[in-house]
Each structure stands twice: as C-alpha cells, then as structure tokens.
Amino acid sequence: YPSLEDEMTILRTHACRTALAEAVATVEDVRRCQAAMEEIPIGDGVLRTAGELARETRRHPAILLGLSPRASLSLVTAARVRAALD
Known about the structure:
Number of helices: 4
Structural class: mainly alpha
Number of domains: 1
Radius of gyration: 20 Å
Number of strands: 0
C-alpha cells in the first residue's frame, strides 16, 4: 500500500479534478431557503410513511442500526425539499 503522502497525491489527482467552485449563494440566501422549507406543510401521510420506514429499519434483522428519530426528521425535510422542487 502507498504511504499517506502518496495516497494523498493519488486522491488529489483523481478526486479533485475540478477547480473549487465559486459561491452561488450567500449564507443569508441559504437561511431564507431553510425558512421557506419550514413553511411547506407536511401531511399525516408523509409523517406516517417516515415513521413506518424508521420503525421497519429498526425491526429488520438484516439492518444492524435502524433509523433514529433524527433520521426520520431528515426524511421529512427531504420530502419538503422535494415538494418545493416540484
């Protein structure tokens, strides 16, 4: 195996082929988007689906660690973002 320095060279060469991107939004832009996402209503069906999915991952024998309540909240956030994009 390569040394740490050699491995970092490999990673720089292959994982960092593009220049650093320039900022396309300010911190305030991101905060406004986050606030807008919180205003999108979430129905009980979405909440139930997120909750059931989390519960099933906790019960399934092939899954060592199921979804946490925080992960369930992230699913709901993802649903809000998806709704905003539609």
